[in-house]
Design the sequence.
């Protein structure tokens, strides 16, 4: 569940405090209490963006409690300490602060934005939401109803059906194999005690990552963080086991009454810390990256008009990794579109990349990178991601050079070793014509 609250319209302007360039001076700060954070000081506007991540996310649901962490996430703004949901919202808005709470497969995130002059009050309010959530039954019932509405909607959404079917095929009983919102039955059974347990399963020092960008120095940030996390447990729930992607090639068809079939496909991938990651990144940008300037888009949409959009991308998770993609096509055309995807996968394996393609994608990726740094909050999110992926303090300033340094030989080696046209599996949701299912 994604829940965002921004109390003040001024954040739109304040969040653009830093200039648009990728030269970022990052300090590593270690507090007296032992918390490590990354900091970029920007004192020109009295505003701070604080990004907090806890590794684990919805994959840490307790056995038999699927959906607990997702539901807990949706309730953190619904009152804390002696403040009910309305009082909490009024206090937050009165400080012109904004808090956002999100849960994903591999992480739980907290985003906070506040003015420097009200930082102490805003951080105390944030601390209450993380460590003393109220979880009143009326709020639980209301948010449960919202989650259930999403579950009901997903049952009639072919895109979600396709993604969920593939996840179950690929990951089975692993948390990756089921929806983080849970089922109707598991959601209904969740209690307040389950939500309190979910808090401590996710939020712990042994999986904490923090970044701050804005009008704060290292000494002040240290004081803030030690107060904010003073009573955080040392350890949380054990992390899940790795789950190798082991889906055989083929086609799975899920009958669904719709004029267009939805297709998702994947093969085995590489982890983010693989030494060939930049080769993989470049190759997949050419094959299926964003926009119209990639092979799949050119062949499937531009030349043949079989879809409005198609893409393929690296999908490295903490405990498994794939190369994935997807598109939609008319039932009568989907078989042809799948055949072209397989053909383009094979053509790249056999022919590699042209010099023109390599230069074009390097120019695009290095030129677009500085545009990501367009505000305090976005920079804080980037810094936390860098920490979680163990990329090092200098990554922001060396990333483009590492892309430029990728050689043709390295690209060829990656394509030969990893790209597997015979390993693709397609899940098709719809009424595809002329397409035979080879797996159930």
Sequence:
């Amino acid at each position: 569940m994604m829940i965002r609250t921004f109390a003040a319209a001024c954040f739109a302007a304040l969040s653009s405090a830093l200039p648009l360039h990728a030269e970022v001076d990052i300090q590593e700060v270690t507090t007296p209490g032992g918390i490590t954070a990354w900091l970029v000081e920007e004192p020109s506007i009295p505003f701070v963006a604080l990004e907090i991540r806890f590794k684990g996310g919805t994959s840490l649901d307790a056995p038999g409690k699927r959906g607990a962490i997702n539901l807990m996430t949706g309730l953190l703004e619904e009152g804390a300490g002696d403040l009910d949901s309305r009082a909490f919202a009024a206090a937050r808005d009165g400080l012109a602060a904004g808090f956002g709470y999100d849960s994903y497969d591999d992480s739980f995130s907290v985003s906070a934005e506040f003015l420097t002059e009200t930082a102490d009050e805003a951080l105390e309010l944030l601390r209450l939401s993380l460590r003393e959530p109220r979880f009143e039954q009326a709020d639980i019932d209301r948010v449960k109803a919202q989650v259930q509405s999403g579950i009901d909607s997903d049952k009639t959404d072919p895109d979600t059906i396709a993604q969920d079917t593939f996840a179950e095929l690929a990951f089975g009983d692993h948390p990756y194999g089921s929806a983080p919102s849970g089922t109707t039955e598991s959601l209904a059974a969740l209690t307040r005690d389950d939500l309190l347990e979910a808090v401590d399963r996710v939020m712990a020092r042994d999986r904490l990552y923090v970044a701050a960008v804005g009008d704060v120095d290292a000494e002040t940030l240290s004081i803030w963080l030690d107060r904010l996390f003073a009573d955080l447990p040392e350890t949380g729930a054990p992390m899940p086991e790795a789950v190798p992607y082991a889906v055989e090639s083929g086609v799975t068809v899920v009958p669904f009454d719709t004029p267009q079939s939805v297709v998702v496909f994947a093969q085995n991938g590489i982890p983010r810390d693989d030494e060939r990651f930049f080769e993989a990144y470049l190759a997949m940008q050419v094959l299926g990256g964003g926009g119209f300037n990639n092979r799949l888009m050119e062949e499937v949409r531009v030349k043949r008009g079989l879809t409005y959009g198609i893409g393929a991308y690296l999908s490295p998770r903490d405990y498994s990794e794939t190369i994935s993609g997807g598109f939609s096509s008319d039932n009568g055309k989907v078989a042809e579109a799948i055949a072209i995807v397989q053909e383009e996968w094979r053509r790249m394996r056999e022919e590699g990349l042209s010099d023109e393609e390599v230069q074009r994608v390097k120019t695009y990726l290095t030129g677009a990178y500085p545009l990501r740094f367009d505000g305090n909050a976005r920079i804080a999110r980037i810094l936390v991601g860098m920490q979680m992926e163990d990329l090092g303090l200098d990554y922001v300033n060396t990333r483009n050079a590492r892309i430029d340094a990728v050689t043709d030989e390295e690209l060829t080696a990656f394509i030969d070793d990893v790209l597997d046209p015979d390993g693709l599996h397609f899940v098709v949701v719809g009424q595809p014509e002329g397409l035979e299912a080879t797996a159930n």
Q: What stands out?
A: The chain has two domains: 2-228, 250-430.
